[in-house]
Amino acid sequence: MRRLPLQLLRSAAAAASSVRGPATNGGGWIVPPAPHPVAPTAAEADLARRLPRRGYSKFASGFTPLQRKPLESILDVERAKGLSPEHLVAAWDDYHLGRGHIGASMKAKLYHLLEQRSDTCRHFVIPLWRGSGYITMFMQVQMPYMIFTGLEDYKARGTQASPYYTITHYTEFAETKDTVLIRGDVVFTSKLTDEEAKVLLETAHSFYLNDMRYRLVEGFNKETHEFEFKDVLQALDMPTM
Fold first, then answer.
1. Is 14 contained in some domain?
2. How many domains does the chain have?
3. What pTM was computed for the model?
4. To which protein family does this belong (predicted)?
5. Helix (H/G/I), strand (E/B), else coil: 126
6. Per-residue pLDDT band at 240 (split at 50, 70, 90)
7. In this structure, are residues 188 and 21 in contact, taking their beta carbons and an 8 Å threshold?
8. How far out from the chain centre does Cα 106 lie?
């Protein structure tokens, strides 16, 4: 495990005040003090109409933005300014080891691509391998956030479905260090393990950043009638059962 002599990150006592899942509105998607739901696009309205024919139902047309956990409540930002990008990432990764959270990072250029692509493609479904099969996660993206819940829960409860997992991207060092810090929070440990959360983060990013995989995301959001879930399984080398 890499350790830095600089006490860059907040103490465990301070970190303990961080809840595993941000506050929710009636158990549903996470909301700030005065929320305004995202207006549905024409493509998303079409998505809501068409997906039930393929076994999906009650897809949301958008979600309310998350209440942001300030970066300075996790990291000593002033001290971090004096670190190299490599040392900053190392400290960030070390801090999140074994704490019930996921730490990661990405280059600013990739973040901007992710931001651009997710602006018009805010939804996707990702299979997560478990045991001898897979569960399907439904994700909604409104940068700097990604929210995940089980597809079955979303089919049953729509926007009131509780999030299993949230991802926040922090851009404070994007310009000065070409680095975007990423934090994943598992809301329900009974629904998702830390290892599964790490895989989900990497997989979600890959579908938005890899050109071939992103075509499937575009198809899901813009050409719903042609979308085939088996293509997602094949992209991940999973059996179509």
1. no
2. 1
3. 0.76
4. Belongs to the ATP11 family.
5. strand
6. confident
7. yes
8. 14
Dihedrals phi, psi of 62, to nearest 5 degrees: 170, 175
Rounded Cα–Cα distance for residues 153 and 157 (Å): 6
219 is written with which tokens?
């198809």
Tens digits of residue pLDDT in 5-43: 334 444 322 332 332 333 333 334 433 333 333 344 444
In 95-201, the DSSP E strands lie at 101-107, 123-130, 133-142, 145-150, 165-170, 179-186
- Give the domain range for residue 88: 71-236
For residue 168, the model assigns a pLDDT of 95
- Residues in Cβ contact with 121 at an 8 Å cutoff, skipping those fewer than 6 apart: 141, 208, 214, 217, 218, 220, 221, 222
What would the pLDDT profile of 184-237 be if each residue is shown by its tens digit?
A: 999 888 999 999 999 999 999 999 999 999 999 999 999 888 899 999 999 999
Domain assignment present for 191: yes
In a domain, 100, yes or no: yes
- The answer to whether residues 65 and 145 touch, using CB atoms and an 8 Å cutoff, is yes
Nearest Cα to Cα of residue 62 among 35, 33, 31, 41: 41
Query: Can you give the pLDDT at residue 241?
Result: 67
- Binning pLDDT at 50, 70 and 90, where does residue 172 land? very high
Tokens encoding 69 = 């956990």
